[in-house]
């Protein structure tokens, strides 16, 4: 069993850890997480500065971007593209096609099974990325 799980059972769904000079808050209760993220997201949206992330992404990646107007615009566009209805209508067709190709690849070259799963996931990611970018540009 994971140490965090043990501590959650012992101390409850929210506890803190002293880490060097800082304190980390550990939240394991799903309801608390949902409440904090849904209702208080503007309070908890700060991202600590990261030189490496800024170097790699120039600060324009949604996961490491500071909460501001640009972040809100990015999130709105991405959210629109990945709405449940869009996923059900468009993305499932892609996933089914890629799964069919992967099954064929398994039959033709079973010894390369790891490569087939990599190709499957990479193809889906890159296709969705391409269509996301083209929908943002238009």
Q: How much helix, percentage-wise, in residues?
A: 55-70%
Radius of gyration: 20 Å
Overall spatial form: extended
Residue-averaged pLDDT: 82
Q: Which range does the strand content fall in? A: 5-15%
* Number of continuous helical runs: 7
What is the gist of this entry?
With 138 residues, the chain is mostly helical. It has helices at residues 3-11, 30-39, 41-44, 51-57, 69-81, 84-108, 113-137; strands spanning 14-19, 22-27. The longest helix is centred in the last third of the chain and has 25 residues, at 84-108.
Can you put this structure into words, describing what you see?
The protein has 138 residues and is mostly helical. It contains seven helices and two strands. It has helices spanning 3-11, 30-39, 41-44, 51-57, 69-81, 84-108, 113-137; strands at residues 14-19, 22-27. Strands 1-2 form a two-stranded antiparallel sheet. The relative contact order is 0.06.
